């Protein structure tokens, strides 16, 4: 099975890097040459740099590359904190060089290793969730295989050829969910129990989620896992377990988030920064009305409640639509049509994520940042496995699934080329 | 980062003969024998002034895209983008020409915390691209490439059952 995943992964990557290689060298945004000059890169006009490596430096990649090649640990400008310093430090650690292209190559290699590892983890995660009893094992295996294939062909594929921080987040997320699954068991009729013997797994899941959140702020939604568990255990009066499992794990995750999004930037920029610093809620404590990530998103990228809801952004909403529809349907599917208690926290995570993206963010980024949530992959895979899907003219959900897969077939290469040519959408 | 706008050279704009001597204006982009050109313009942070670039050898009744690109490593904003005509024999920024001239303008402002130090030089790529059928000519290559890819995917998806392939 791993061989199959490996082959699919390699073939998909070769196709995408092939598309980038053949793509025109003249980029729409001509700033890559300025970036490379500023970073004092050598050999920018070499054949492979012109035809491949330079094309991977579009959009946010510039900030990541700066972080990976800079000497300091904290970025010079506040908005650069939006781009994972964890991911940049990780690449810096492995690259051990000041050379821009060497660093870029190490980053791309790590990106692919993390993406591939995540695919393997997703396979086992899917099996762990959907093969609870022996009868369903065959189904679980099939579902895992299809989900993994769909994940390899994620709608973020184009961006994942470069040096974005997403693969680190979804690797950490999938491992975190797997650890959570291994440390809990479902009870009849609809409950959850945590096993004392597996407490380390449970606590470790919080560490993984917390690190994923440090890397990408949207992973903070994974904290919903602990809220759901807490409510379950409290409702069944398992207070000691509620205290030592979800409460402790959730608090750990919360502390890490507070440090990352309040304390760290406060120490770095306040009080001389003004603006954000002046919204402090308690004297002596670095807690402000909005977190720092939210502040810089609003200040530099105009993110905020309904700010993206303008007529000129209709194309971006259309670009985001397929993932919106499929993710939304997946939440309905696993709550109303085939309710599954094991994926219930993930349903809430998905719902919260959709609300956040629709109301506060640049909606088209759903195609990239949704990759840490596997719920819609399971929905697609489950529909694909059903007999009804084999019929000539699919209806209902099957029609949506088929439409989504055909959309992916067109979207992935187009996104890859647009990314290589430094064209929107970002 | 990119900001862009379009300009259309008026029909009545006096055609300048190709062998006429260049204007004395220091920053200029010439489209002589070309339909697109790019220069790297260096601006200093903190001067809060408008930057002007003269565009030469544009064709009358043609539309051009003016594209201003700068590296995200330089946290600046580009604003006040516009274009205008300076009539013949009219002084502009200490220069004068017997021909009518077309200029573009833009302002570069600091947009970061902490602010970049005054005097920091920010390189900016300014491109002028002729538009045909409403599309800048430098995008034709990409459009054709994407069209080929889409046609190929369409062809393959007709021949292969994609859903069946994923299911297997």
What would your notes on this structure say?
The complex is a heterodimer of chains A (426) and B (168). With 426 residues, chain A is mainly alpha-helical. Chain A has a domain at 166-284. Chain A has 17 helices and two strands. Chain A has a two-stranded antiparallel sheet. In chain A, strand 1 (184-187) and strand 2 form a beta hairpin. In chain A, helix 6 packs antiparallel against helix 7 (137-152) and helix 6 runs parallel beside helix 8. The two termini of chain A are 34 Å apart. In chain B, the strands form two sheets. In chain B, strands 1, 3, 5, 8 and 9 form a five-stranded antiparallel sheet that branches. Chain B has a four-stranded mixed sheet with strand order 2-4-7-6, with no helix packed on it. At the A-B interface, helix 2, helix 4, helix 7 and helix 17 of A face strand 5, strand 8, helix 1 and helix 2 of B.
Classify the oligomer. heterodimer
Q: What is the β-strand count of chain A?
A: 2
The sequence of SSEs of chain A as H and E is: HHHHHHHHEEHHHHHHHHH
- Overall pLDDT score of chain B: 92
Helix content of chain A: 55-70%
Report how far the terminal alpha carbons of chain B are from each other.
Answer: 43 Å
Shape verdict of chain B: flat
**Structural class based on helices, strands and sheet pairing of chain A:** mainly alpha
What fraction of residues of chain A sit in β-strands?
A: under 5%
Count of alpha and pi helical runs of chain A: 17
Give me the secondary-structure topology.
The complex is a heterodimer of chains A (426) and B (168).
Chain A: H1 2-22, H2 32-38, H3 47-51, H4 61-69, H5 85-95, H6 100-130, H7 137-152, H8 166-183, E1 184-187, E2 191-194, H9 199-215, H10 224-235, H11 239-269, H12 292-301, H13 314-337, H14 344-360, H15 366-369, H16 375-385, H17 397-420
Antiparallel strand pairs in A: 1-2
Helix pairs in contact in A: 1-7, 4-5, 5-6, 6-7, 6-8, 7-16, 8-9, 9-11, 10-11, 10-14, 13-14, 13-16, 13-17
Chain B: E1 2-8, E2 28-30, E3 36-44, E4 50-56, E5 63-70, E6 76-86, E7 101-110, E8 121-132, E9 135-136, H1 140-159, H2 162-167
Parallel strand pairs in B: 2-4
Antiparallel strand pairs in B: 1-5, 3-8, 4-7, 5-8, 6-7, 8-9
């Amino acid at each position: 099975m791993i061989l199959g995943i490996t082959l699919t992964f390699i073939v998909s990557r070769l196709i995408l890097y092939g598309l980038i290689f053949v793509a025109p060298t003249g980029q729409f945004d001509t700033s890559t040459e300025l970036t490379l000059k500023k970073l004092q890169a050598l050999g920018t006009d070499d054949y492979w740099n012109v035809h491949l490596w330079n094309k991977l430096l579009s959009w946010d990649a510039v900030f990541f590359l700066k972080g990976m090649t800079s000497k300091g640990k904290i970025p010079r400008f506040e908005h650069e904190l939006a781009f994972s310093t964890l991911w940049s430090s990780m690449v810096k650690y492995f690259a051990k060089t000041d050379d821009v292209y060497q660093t870029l190559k190490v980053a791309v290699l790590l990106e692919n290793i993390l993406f591939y590892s995540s695919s393997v983890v997703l396979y086992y995660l899917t099996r762990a969730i959907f093969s609870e009893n022996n009868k369903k094992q065959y189904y679980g295996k099939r579902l895992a295989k299809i989900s993994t294939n769909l994940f390899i062909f994620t709608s973020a594929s184009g961006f994942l050829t470069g040096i974005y921080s997403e693969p680190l987040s979804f690797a950490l997320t999938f491992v975190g969910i797997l650890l959570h699954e291994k440390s809990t068991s479902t009870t009849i009729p609809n409950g959850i129990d945590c096993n004392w013997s597996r407490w380390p797994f449970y606590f470790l899941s919080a560490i993984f989620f917390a690190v994923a959140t440090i890397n990408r702020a949207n992973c903070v939604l994974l904290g919903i896992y602990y809220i759901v568990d807490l409510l379950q255990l409290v409702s069944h009066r398992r207070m000691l377990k509620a205290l030592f499992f979800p409460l402790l794990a959730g608090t750990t995750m919360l502390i890490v988030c507070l440090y990352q999004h309040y304390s760290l930037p406060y120490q770095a920029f306040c009080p001389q920064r003004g603006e954000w610093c002046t919204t402090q809620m308690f004297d002596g404590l670095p807690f402000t009305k909005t977190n720092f990530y939210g502040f810089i998103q609003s200040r530099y990228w105009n993110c905020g409640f309904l700010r993206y809801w303008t007529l000129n952004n209709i194309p971006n909403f259309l670009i985001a639509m397929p993932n919106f529809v499929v993710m939304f349907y997946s939440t309905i599917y696993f709550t109303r049509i085939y309710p599954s208690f094991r994926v219930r926290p993930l349903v809430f995570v998905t719902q919260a994520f959709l609300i956040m993206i629709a109301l506060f963010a640049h909606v088209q980024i759903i195609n990239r940042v949704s990759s840490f949530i596997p719920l819609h992959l399971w929905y697609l895979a489950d529909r694909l496995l059903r007999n009804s899907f084999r019929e000539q003219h699919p209806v209902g959900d099957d029609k949506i699934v088929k439409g989504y897969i055909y959309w992916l077939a067109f979207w992935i290469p187009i996104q890859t080329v647009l990314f290589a040519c430094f064209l929107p959408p970002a | 980062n990119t900001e862009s706008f379009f300009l259309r050279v008026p029909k009545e704009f006096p055609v300048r003969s190709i062998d006429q001597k260049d204007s004395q204006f220091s920053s200029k982009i010439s489209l002589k024998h070309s339909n697109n050109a790019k220069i790297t313009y260096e601006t200093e942070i903190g001067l809060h002034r408008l930057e002007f670039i003269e565009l030469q050898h544009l064709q009358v009744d043609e539309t051009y895209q003016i594209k201003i690109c700068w590296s995200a490593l330089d946290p600046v904003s580009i604003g006040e983008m516009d274009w205008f005509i300076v009539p013949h024999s009219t002084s502009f920024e200490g220069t004068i020409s017997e021909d009518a001239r077309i200029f573009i303008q833009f302002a570069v402002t600091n947009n970061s915390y902490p602010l970049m130090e005054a005097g920091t030089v920010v390189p900016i790529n300014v491109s002028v691209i002729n538009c045909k059928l409403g599309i800048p000519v430098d995008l034709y290559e990409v459009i054709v490439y994407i069209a080929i890819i889409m046609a190929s995917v369409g062809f393959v998806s007709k021949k292969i059952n994609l859903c069946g392939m994923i299911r297997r």
